[in-house]
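Hi R.,

Here's the chain you asked about this morning:
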Amino acid sequence: MTEITAAALATHPFLHGMSRDQLGVLAETAREVRFPARHRLFEDGGHATRCWLIRSGQVALDLHVPGEGPMVVETIGMGELLGWSWLFPPYQWAFGAVALTPVDAFEFDGAAVRAACAADHALGYELTGRLIRILAGRLQATRIRLLGRSGQAASVY
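And the predicted structure, written out as tokens:
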């Protein structure tokens, strides 16, 4: 297995601008992984234990719609983060994810990253801010997709 370095992580857009020390701590929790096309990484509602920084390939985020089955909410790819549910209790996936193409990624152990963030509040603050921006974007994408499917316009109060 290849050791992940701070320099390797620094090349990923999600981590751009983080300190070398913070990247070094994250590197200790990471490994390189590869998934074939059509591989399901996780299911909506399953136990969330990890996250990925996508280096190449595409992943569909889906949501189970009762009576209709899975609905693709968003497609993400190179340079993006996959998975945020590992950070917040109850550590359950809020979406499902399936590789649309072969995917290469850095995979992070969620418990190890949480422990590193608890030990270094500056690291925790930095990662939480980055994750919140991702979460807000995914929430907006889900809202737009659901409104489009229902044919309803957004109401203003």
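Confidence is low (pLDDT under 50) at residues 153-157.

Let me know if you need anything else.
M.
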